[in-house]
Amino acid sequence: MAKQRLTRTNGMIAGVCGGLADFFGINVFWFRLLFVLLALPGAAPGVLPYIILWFIMPRR
Fold this sequence. Notes:
The protein is mainly α. Helix content is 57%, strand content 0%. The protein has three helices and no strands. The protein has helices at residues 16-24, 28-39, 44-56. Helix 1 crosses helix 2 and helix 2 crosses helix 3 (44-56). The protein is globular, with a radius of gyration of 12 Å.
């Protein structure tokens, strides 16, 4: 059984949403929608976690 790793994939900005979608096995649309909705009430709840994941997640 292959061990699945959380990595960034080629995406619109940094590949964070694409990497999360690949890891959890769902459509990338749902992660993009989640980050956009979290960014609406002042940006910090959506943008800050995205930037942190951008630096933490290795590139594929």
